[in-house]
Amino acid sequence: NTEELVATIHKTTEKLEDGNQIVERSVNSIQSLNTQMNTINSEIGSIYNFIQNQEETANAFVTSIDTLSDSYEEMQSQCNNAGKYFFDIVRGTDKIRGNLVRNAMGFTTKEFLHVFEVDHMIFTWRLYNAINKYETLDMNIVNNPKDCKLGKWCNNLKDEKILNHPSFLKIKKYHEELHAVAVRCLQEIDNQNRAQAIHYYEEASVTLQKLLQEIDKVKQIV
Fold first, then answer.
1. 36 pLDDT tier (thresholds 50, 70, 90)
2. How is residue 158 annotated by DSSP?
3. CATH of domain 106-219
4. Which residues form a coiled coil (predicted)?
5. CA separation, residue 110 to residues 115, 159, 202 (Å)
6. pTM for the structure as a whole
7. What angle do helix axes 166-190 and 149-156 make, rounded to 10 degrees?
């Protein structure tokens, strides 16, 4: 009986040791789990802080965009006002200049050529004004290059030196092209296609420069 009791106590001790090991492992597992949970919580906290910072940054960005939008609208308004003011001055000056030219006596050919240059610089600029609704251009006038001062001058010219100059034909060519592009620009304005109207305005500006170059060449021989 004594031996059986000793054996039973020994087995019980072994079971207790096994139980202690299990408990110890469980405690270690729980501690490890707590550590992992703390790590996860810390990472979640970091992610939350990151998202919060990003949200604050995004809000600040949106606020900046709103401020920029307000500033843009104000700047656009100021530019439009300045453009309208500049347009009024240019048109008023152009009308005075036109009256002086029509009543002028004794203008030299070079002076008339300079007038034609200025005329078509303003003509092209008025396309921009029309795009921005500062004024409305008459399609019938724009579409009639032969009736403007340069067109009339070309048709009535008698000077053989100019008529035989290579630049004279180019002047007529670019002059007609300029008016044709201007017509297309006005058509797109009527169609409310601003982007295409601007495209034709830019094309007109390029054609204008070609016209001015050829007029300048003729000015050098008169």
1. low
2. -
3. 1.20.120
4. none
5. 9, 13, 28
6. 0.60
7. 150
